[in-house]
Amino acid sequence: MTVSISSLDPQIISRGREFFASISGESPSVFNKGWWTGKVMDWAMKNEDFKVQMFRFVDVLPYLNTSESLSRHIEEYFSGEDSNIPDVLKWGATKTKIGGGLVAKVLNRTIRSNIESMARQFIIGQVSKEAVKGIRKLRKDGFAFVLDLLGEATVSEVESDVYRDGYLEVLEAIQKELGKWKPLDGGANDLDWGHAPKVNVAVKPSAFYSQSKPVDLEGTVVGMMSRIEPIYKKTMEMGGFMCIDMESLKYKEATVELFKRLRLKYPDYPHLGIVFQAYLRSVDDDVRHLLEWAHAQNLPISIRLVKGAYWDYETVMAKQNDWPVPVWTHKPESDMAFERVSKMILENSDICHFACASHNIRTISAVMETASALNVPEERYEFQVLYGMAEPVRKGLRNVAKRVRLYCPYGDLLPGMAYLVRRLLENTANESFLKQTFADEADMDHLLENPEATLKRQLDSRCAPKEEKQIGPSRFVNFPVADFTIEAERNAFPDSIATVRARMGGEVPLFINGKDVVTSDRLESYNPADPSEIVGSVCQAGVTEVDIAIEAASDAYLSWRDVAPEKRAEVLFKAAQYLKDTIHELCALQVLEVGKQWDQAHADVSEAIDFLEYYAREMIRFGKPRRMGRAPGEMSQLFYQGKGVAAVIAPWNFPLAISVGMVSAAIASGCSVVYKPAGISSCVGHNLVEMWKAAGLPDGVFNYCPGRGSVMGDHLVDHPDVSVIAFTGSMEVGLRIQERAAKVQPGQQQCKRVIAEMGGKNGTIIDDDADLDEAVLGVLYAAFGFQGQKCSACSRVIVLDSIYDRFIERLTEAAKSVKLGPSENPANYMGPVADKAAQKNVLRYIRIAEEEGNVLVKREVSDDLKATGGCYVPLTIVDGITKDHRIAQEEVFGPVLSVMRAKNMDEALDIANSTRFALTGAIYTRSPANLERASREFRVGNLYLNKPSVGALVERHAFGGFKMSGVGSKAGGPDYLLQFMDPRLVCENTMRRGFAPIEEDDEWIS
Amino acid sequence: MTVSISSLDPQIISRGREFFASISGESPSVFNKGWWTGKVMDWAMKNEDFKVQMFRFVDVLPYLNTSESLSRHIEEYFSGEDSNIPDVLKWGATKTKIGGGLVAKVLNRTIRSNIESMARQFIIGQVSKEAVKGIRKLRKDGFAFVLDLLGEATVSEVESDVYRDGYLEVLEAIQKELGKWKPLDGGANDLDWGHAPKVNVAVKPSAFYSQSKPVDLEGTVVGMMSRIEPIYKKTMEMGGFMCIDMESLKYKEATVELFKRLRLKYPDYPHLGIVFQAYLRSVDDDVRHLLEWAHAQNLPISIRLVKGAYWDYETVMAKQNDWPVPVWTHKPESDMAFERVSKMILENSDICHFACASHNIRTISAVMETASALNVPEERYEFQVLYGMAEPVRKGLRNVAKRVRLYCPYGDLLPGMAYLVRRLLENTANESFLKQTFADEADMDHLLENPEATLKRQLDSRCAPKEEKQIGPSRFVNFPVADFTIEAERNAFPDSIATVRARMGGEVPLFINGKDVVTSDRLESYNPADPSEIVGSVCQAGVTEVDIAIEAASDAYLSWRDVAPEKRAEVLFKAAQYLKDTIHELCALQVLEVGKQWDQAHADVSEAIDFLEYYAREMIRFGKPRRMGRAPGEMSQLFYQGKGVAAVIAPWNFPLAISVGMVSAAIASGCSVVYKPAGISSCVGHNLVEMWKAAGLPDGVFNYCPGRGSVMGDHLVDHPDVSVIAFTGSMEVGLRIQERAAKVQPGQQQCKRVIAEMGGKNGTIIDDDADLDEAVLGVLYAAFGFQGQKCSACSRVIVLDSIYDRFIERLTEAAKSVKLGPSENPANYMGPVADKAAQKNVLRYIRIAEEEGNVLVKREVSDDLKATGGCYVPLTIVDGITKDHRIAQEEVFGPVLSVMRAKNMDEALDIANSTRFALTGAIYTRSPANLERASREFRVGNLYLNKPSVGALVERHAFGGFKMSGVGSKAGGPDYLLQFMDPRLVCENTMRRGFAPIEEDDEWIS
């Protein structure tokens, strides 16, 4: 039987009109302006700035434990002049300071209780007893329920345990009461409406496994299963229903897989459901596949369809990562998908029970009419709405459809506030059906219109986009981050690793003036996870080879500097294309040579691509001569010329990215290059040879010259024909290079320019109102990502006294939860350090840390792994560190984190700024004043607010520090290329015989 | 009797109509398209680019002595694809290469003869015999004449002698013929028309004295007089008339004065005239003053009124110098002035004879009607038109007014071409009456309209200017160059020198942390023109004072760096205002302390003002945080922070400008400063103390620390608390500073940044087609201005073989013509070098030059001056220098110029680039290909095309070199401030709970 929604439209609209009529005059309590919540909603809808401030304030509220702290935040969030700020807040903002003591206390109590009562609107209870009581009341009103335990992000396995136990506890409490509840509608078999279990529980799977991540699909599913299964067992014991909620897109695949495994494991128990989100572009395929699976397995299933609650998040993340936006970008598209997928499910009602979760009366009407047209039995579908929202809708639904279930969150106010914010946002969004229906009172015809028609109308009314003339390459965008939700991306890694492993181990020659050069001195580069595995036998340049390379580069420079900037840029674009084309093998080599995790390796290659794409565009920009002044009779133009031969001395920790960055900047600028990669990563360094070949760079412009620093390092730096030295590495070496380069050698024709990026001792401040969900994971990642071997790594976390214990507890447990082992295995959070020398050095610092502080965490790999001889060091966290300790001052370059306590923000900033370095830093705070203060006073090259201090992206996070961290340049920033070039100015007197051609931009008479 | 032009309008228009009617159907030969000239005019009017190329080509033509050279220039000027290029030229441009030998020769002959015949259109003859013949013919046709001898710029006294002799020669030739000429109209007393001398000669006074300059008014008048008087005497002997022509504005005052003196000297001879230009805004006043003078002296005079031929030049110069534009900017305003001033002269016909020189029929009609209304006797006015132009007008005039005189240039084709270009431009200008009348055939009503009405119409038709919202300070413009045509400006100098001299000689204390500090060690700064005159007794800082100053600066830095960039800019604007307010005394001190000529001193103070005004604006620009990337959910901003304490080590040659430049850049950027002026110019350096006080700079941000380099120089550079060293001076010291600064000292917290501007050995290339009028004066000024003591000074002039002799001859004579002596006297071109040490050093190099080359010029001051003990050295030019000579490689910093011969442009560029330095350079050429080639291959920091290599202006000529000339930064350029700052980036994650406020410039979904 074929049913088409458009043919049903008249009935749908007619039913919708009836629905509206049946609830005429009613309004959801959330819009009731007599209440404080209603007022806030009203203000928020009128004023976007206030909305942002208000919702952020609500978000931070549970962290504001003292009257003083609350006052301060009110002041900071609401002290603006805006007349749209509610008086109670404005008054609060201005008066708490003046009134002091008593006034402040009264005011604070009022505000706190107002906001808490807002939260209670949407949350059925804070403890299980309250929840049970609330449910009882709902059932009395004729509504079924589904219970959801609110939770913070689980950053550790301990927290995941606690979360699981929370569910078991509430189920226990319900179990005690269950016998007393009569089935709704007097249903048979103790089932609501005669077919539905009275107990219904929803679970968000990612919270049950703190180590969930797309790249480790199997580990994630197994981890989630381990804690959800006990809850499912308990539910089954109570004859209940469990629904697995869908969260953000990155967990979708794991969630579906979890559902399937659980369903297969208990094939005879039918009450297991899963959620799909209509806003996903993939929703049709996803639902179709699961229905096919259910048919194939012959296992009845249940699907709840929702619109989806992470639209902003998914869109922002996609835009930030330059991924395709995975959600529909027009609201009616989601509505269309909802109706379409509902129909698909209803068509499969033989195998699938359907829960329609929508507040949209058009959608509900469409589902009802479709079900009716398809003759779907009533027990095969039900309706769900959120507790505390859309009361008129739920009432109307109960009247017409009976089978209405309320989604009831319960739990602490702390996670409750986050939930509250989501609900408030949903209610105030311009496109919200509820807002349109009950706050804006939009035209009923529009509200009930077929979304296809709405979409057409919206698209028609948009102005035609201005045709932008594209001259030259498009605007720079960062290369997309690896998306491990895509199976092909996950599979590419092991495949490429196998490929690369099969061919590695051979001789790696030098490359000078377009030719391979073999030397007898060799350095063997090995896999740090297994030093017996040789990655390459790398020829080492001596002073002779360096001299030859510099001579070749000097010759090549003379013509390369005069190649048009656009032509030089073209070569970089081609090089970028080569990297894009071979990205997985490039990543694989990094996994094997320096022990990068998959995502870290991918980020490194992406950054290399970014440098090429960015510097190429930058050179096109700088390549255009700039007219200086506007005097008539004179044409004065400023332009740039490459300085000469650049010696590029690269580090091993970003073996491709930083090498390509420094080298391509030099080449884009019109310099030629002698490139010395780090010994440890010389095989990755050799990728540049292949890259420039593919790009068609003329011979001699790039020369690959690995060699022992002790043999040829000084010689390279001292050479009179070197004009630029671009170095990234340790402070000690950087300073030595600067000192040597400043001495003019016989025959030297130019002052050398040294671009030195050196060390860091980066701090992260945790303010007392920090969002710990983000702060704990952020610090963990910044400190231990790639084993802490980043100059940007967090090595000091400076925690404010009042949040110290909570933060440390969560951080320590989080650190104990991550997995250690070879980087090849994507389950592992941390692998071996780069080589034996690094291992030795880090172990030495761990001893110092142990002497100076108290060990909170010291986690080693398993003995099995140790036995492989891999360069592992323990993941180490110590506290009790003060700024005078060595471990607080010296760069370790390994997974060692010092925890430092600060009594207030003054002290925290003082500690943060107390080292010789000034590279990166981070602060987690939700105080607008402290955000602003840190921006000013936390003096580092790259400061991150509510973000980890690592992972700088080209352009967006132009990277580099000052003090002893570097010379104050920014790689991937708008001033970087200037360092490789000399400015030249040519000024022509265009007046002859008293006559000058007048240019358009002359300062001429009007 | 009162006559108003507007009341005469009906008669004027009616007479104009008659005039038009009388010449109906006639057209000036210049627009005759049957002739080559007419075609060129036609093409030029249709195509602005072709016009520029064509007229430039005409200009260079006389220099193209060989067939090859002519071919090459045609190729370069006309090889474009433009369809508007005449075939003969296009064909010439493409075929000369291919056809080779014979074809080229034929073609070249054609083009050359075409252009020469164009010139003959406007020039009555090339030698006196031809001129006399031409005149005879004119007189036969009923026209009187006034003879003008064309001339190149006279760059030396020898050339001025030659020019004078040219006049005497032609007068001699005329005298022989004179008796044969019957007076026109059969006038009585052997006078034309019964009242006008048959012989009439015009002189351009500036050409008669090569050292003419506004700043030396008296010297200029005396110099002009010395060579014009003999001509006047000869004229009187022949009973002739002499008219003194008016040239560009800068000679106006001297010309008027010359006229008065000559008129007074021969009071009984009435036939002396002068010219005024109606396009000058001052024309009413100028004419009125002269008429009053004539009345007062009771001396009859004659005035020729012209529109004025230097409109473009005067406007361009005013705009380049930021002077008020001295000419009317709307053509009808000049026409109005012409009618107004004509009337004024006619009203004074009792004392003043009037020559109306205009081709504009409206103007002519107005003059006729005004004269008639005023009953001016016919013998009191006449009409003049240019030979070869406006033939219909002259014909019409002869018919109605009889008394028509043709202005007849004669002379060599070389200066003739320059004259030709002026005439061609005038004929093709859009606003030209001739073009409108005879080429465009504009509406007669418009042509005869009262210019007042025309002006109103033009103004009304302009769009209302867009109201630009002025946010912050206006766009940067350079401070105006001193305008010595203004008497007050000339008088200000001696006055200020007297004032400063009266109060100088006292103690000059250090200034540290807002307080004067007196030390016992003193250095006496003296006047290099008279070492016995002490300018100041300057306290010298030792290491103790340096330490105290650095400590003060370190403290001040901590708060200064956080002062908002706009506030810092404000301080700079106030400092600039202080300099503007006290400019003459600041100049006077430089004249006395370092021997700067007036204009040089003024340029130095102006540059200081420019630095303040420019860097203030630059800091406002850099002060705005720049958003990086456009990712939603993230706000990433790049901004800058001052590096710390800057040690500024300044030179004495631009004692205020470079000091203020380096210091203000540091201060604008948020650094604090310890400033060490050069010992020789420490008193000028102390001006900075007063300046910053006046600007309200907080204590400690600027510290004045003069001292002996040997005592405290290294200490200042080595100090661990110094972050930036800004140095301008010799290469030796610069390299020493760089080397020392690169060594990290104990306790040092940052890598030091050294900004070093060092020496130069600047070359100027003279191509074989260079405009020698400009090249000779440009090289002279670049080599000997301020005694060659500029890092930008020309010390090598590289001359192409084929023009070598001509250039050298003119240059040598020019060098012999300039005056030497104290800079206080504005007549002197060159004064003493800076001090005894400089004198000794330069004398040493002169000995080297004498040994290595052949002395062409070695000019010393008079023995009287030598006896004063002033630090004089000879002005020296040597030739026979090759690039291996020391004098071609080492910086002299004094008035020593090496002449080097190059066989072609390849060799010239090779020589130019052959030193360790790469600071400035210049080339004089009229070959488009060589201009382009030099722009690319003459590799210096500042290259000037057809301009001297000195006199860089802030912004317009952002200044600085590379190789051993500096570190590749540009003072007064857009990248300069970056060197004093560290970039910082703050990146905020603005997403909370999946919700991010979307910014307008986010890369968001469409």
TrEMBL record, chains A, B:
Top-level lineage group: Bacteria
Domain Proline dehydrogenase residues, every copy: 132-436
Organism: Pseudodesulfovibrio nedwellii
Catalysed reaction, written as an equation: L-glutamate 5-semialdehyde + NAD(+) + H2O = L-glutamate + NADH + 2 H(+)
Pathway(s) annotated for this protein in UniProt: Amino-acid degradation; L-proline degradation into L-glutamate; L-glutamate from L-proline: step 2/2
Record domain Proline utilization A N-terminal: where: 10-122
InterPro entries: Ald_DH/histidinol_DH, Ald_DH_C, Ald_DH_CS_CYS, Ald_DH_N, Aldehyde_DH_dom, Bifunct_PutA, FAD-linked_oxidoreductase-like, Proline_DH_dom
Name of the protein in question: L-glutamate gamma-semialdehyde dehydrogenase
Domain Aldehyde dehydrogenase residue range list: 521-984
The UniProt record lists the keyword tRNA processing: no
